[in-house]
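Let us begin with a simple case.
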Amino acid sequence: MDLWQLILRAIQLLWVVLITALIGNVIALNHDGPMAAINFTMFVAVLSWLAVLYGLAASFVTSLAIPIVMLALDGAAALFTLIDGIVLAAKLQAVNCSHPNKGPGWIGFGAAGVGKRCREIQASTAFVWFLFATFAATLALAFLSFRRVGGSARSHGPGMSQVRV
């Protein structure tokens, strides 16, 4: 693996840690608010953890760098982060967290500090979009690696026309 993929994995790790912390705090402080989008975001965070940790491990242990696995993990993570970014942005709506005028069905409703919950969800939404951008980049690099190697973990031997007798 090259240096760019290692840098992207480190940036992904940062975003995943931030998303997990923020969404975990939203879940911990919930008191009857809508939780479907929040729970989906935590699912996406767990899936992202798997993809990032496998990608980091594969960058240091080359026998783990199986292109089809990297392609599948990065593809699933990119797809689910895209969906999660859209869902969070749609559920949160364009709102001023200092003075939210939304009803009980709004995603920011449900905690004693509605403004704090709203800001945490806003920050999580931004970090999910940053995470999506890094997963899209690593997906492109995984696709190029898959095309270059042909999908196998090992390089193939020479063809029959290249063997000398």
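The second case is a distinct protein. As before, the sequence precedes its structure tokens.
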Amino acid sequence: MLRKLNLFCLGSSAALCALLILSFAGCGSSSSSSAIQVSGSDTMVNVAQKWAEVYMETNPDIQIQVAGGGSGLGIASLIDGDIQMANASRKMKDEELKLAQENTGKEPQEFVVGRDALAIYVHKDNPLEEITLAQLADIYGNGGKTTTWTQLGNKVAGCASDEIVRVSRQSSSGTYVYFREAVLGKERDYKQGSLDQSGSKDVVDLVAKTPCAIGYSGMGYATDQVKMLKVVGTPDSEGIAPTVENAKNGSYPIARPLLIYTLGQPEGKTKIYLDWIMSDDGQKIVSDLGYVPLK
């Protein structure tokens, strides 16, 4: 279109040419700014993209642009005022809430839009069926002594080295932060040497092709190439599987809310879209993709 305007300018006055190009630029900017910009949690990116796809089918005049990148990136974009909605698999920190208000003059609002069980994945041929939170902390946590499958009383076919290959997430990920707080404890950091992945799907894909590996990711990313372990929360409890029902009733030890943050109370098309996400239609998508709906 712009090339056509430039060709038109060859035979027109400079004033008319400038007016047309400015009008075209204004229209392009308006179109872009009218889109609902969504960014953040890789755990939520599948469901966020599906929400957008289904919603735009019945509301073709609304454009919704979804990006992942991790909860930290989404929250940073919200703080800068660049997006309308930040997907997060962790809560915003106090300093982030304060910075957002200082930068934009608006207080971030939190909305729970579903729940997720953080599953522990191993290769499909791994005979292990359950693991305790204490064992996970010793595998992943700084100073932990568990480094081989034999130490867990386990022998893995195809894992000649016996070494546990730790698959983790990048530090900007909400999943990374949540796992540290829920499993390692807020005061304990991760052990060095893990294979840190940029996305939830990447974790599961790497575990699927690495017999020696263990990893953590949302249960919605399970495939038939991996196994999700039962998790034992306390010494006197039994292993609990990461299922929708167990996440809903609170028995699974590492379940968490899925969050959307907005700057101030959402208004206009953003509010309408968020209300739809929390409606039966939006929550059906949460359920269909393996997450836990609100109702």
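The chain has two domains: 35-115+257-288, 116-255. The longest strand covers residues 108-123.
Keep these points in mind for the review questions at the end of the chapter.
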